[in-house]
Design goal:
Strand order of the largest sheet: 1-2
Largest sheet: 2 strands, antiparallel
Number of strands: 2
Strand content: 5-15%
Structural class: alpha+beta
Order of helices and strands: HEEHHH
Helix content: over 70%
Number of helices: 4
Number of domains: 2
């Protein structure tokens, strides 16, 4: 090969940007040659005309595959989050039901105690009316003295 023939080879660099991906293509072309890239049915008719278009199509395909993978992963994460939220919801409902049951039991016990105390108080007043009136007067006087201060 003569040195002059070596100078006839040209080097060309192209950049293709697809969203956040950059593809660098280096192509060596001999001036006597026509298109160095043969037609490829995967990239369509544009590939037979320009290697830049073939690289762009390849980058677009890779970007689409990445986009699909990201979409699938997002769907998986969304499903996992929904499942976890459903678990939290069911746990919260169970705890709320337990609390309602406990509060209902406490209320019923308090109502029963009040009824018992009321019945005992009525019985005491009927059996010993004078002592009940004097006890009520004493309690009222004591509470009045405390509140006056």
């Amino acid at each position: 090969m003569r040195p002059t023939n070596a100078l006839l080879f040209l080097s060309r660099i192209k950049r293709v940007s697809v969203k956040s991906f950059t593809v660098v293509i280096t192509e060596t072309i001999h001036p006597d040659m026509s298109d160095p890239i043969p037609s490829d049915p995967q990239f369509g008719a544009a590939a037979s005309q320009d290697p830049f278009q073939a690289a762009k199509a390849s980058a677009m395909k890779a970007a689409e595959e990445l986009r699909n993978a990201a979409s699938q992963k997002a769907q998986e994460l969304r499903s996992a989050a929904q499942e976890r939220a459903q678990q939290f919801k069911s746990t919260a409902n169970e705890r709320a039901d337990e609390f309602k049951e406990y509060a209902g039991q406490a209320f019923n016990e308090a109502r029963d105690r009040y009824a018992d105390i009321r019945v005992e108080g009525e019985k005491f007043v009927r059996e010993k009316p004078m002592q009940a009136v004097l006890t009520a007067f004493g309690v009222g006087l004591f509470v009045g003295l405390i509140l006056r201060r």
